[in-house]
Amino acid sequence: MPVWDDNDEAISLFAAFCSEGAHQEMEWLEAYTPYAVFRRNGDGVRVEIVGTMSRPWLDGITPTELLD
User: Would residue 4 count as lying in a domain?
Assistant: First the structure.
């Protein structure tokens, strides 16, 4: 199972869904938008994707490309 560090693969996976100009020093309500809502559904979990792609040019970017 892959392990994500704080500033590598997870950032590149969601880069296309992050607000332009957001940074880690901002208040969380300013910088973060929901991507998915998880709801209990009987014995399972239902996932509803609610995020929208705001930077499509970063869709599919790899961690190496993000650092360049």
Answer: no
